[in-house]
């Protein structure tokens, strides 16, 4: 686990997990509570946290892509698209990031 924090790729993988998890909580917990039951507390707290994680993920993806000389058309865009699809960051970590 300590190795993950010592490299930019490891930090990207951690951010991918956190961003993906926050997206899942927003989509599958917060939104139904908000629109079905009128409970807005979770989305008002988790929304900005997810937004920050989303931006950190984007910036770190671009940084790691430059560091590892990823071609944008073959690698970077796939990682960037993964953060807007539920379960996408988990998939991209399993299929791509964990193999680097």
What are the SSEs and their pairings?
Blueprint: H1 2-6, H2 8-37, H3 41-67, H4 72-82, H5 88-95
Helix pairs in contact: 2-3, 2-5, 3-4, 4-5
Tell me what you see in this structure.
- The chain is an all-alpha fold and 100 residues long.
- It has one domain (7-99).
- 81% of the residues lie in helices and 0% in strands.
- It contains five helices and no strands.
- It has helices at residues 2-6, 8-37, 41-67, 72-82, 88-95.
- Helix 2 (8-37) packs antiparallel against helix 3.
- The longest helix has 30 residues, at 8-37.
- The chain is elongated, with a radius of gyration of 15 Å.
- The model has no long low-confidence stretch (mean pLDDT 91).
Summarize the structure.
It is built from five helices and no strands. It is an all-alpha fold.
Put simply, the count of helices is 5
> In the residues, how many domains can be counted?
1
Give the uncertain stretches in residue-range form. Answer: none
Specify the biggest β-sheet: none
Number of strands: 0
Task: Return Rg in Å.
Answer: 15 Å
CA-based shape: elongated
Could you report the average pLDDT, rounded to the nearest whole number? Answer: 91
Helix content: over 70%
- Measured distance between first and last alpha carbons: 16 Å
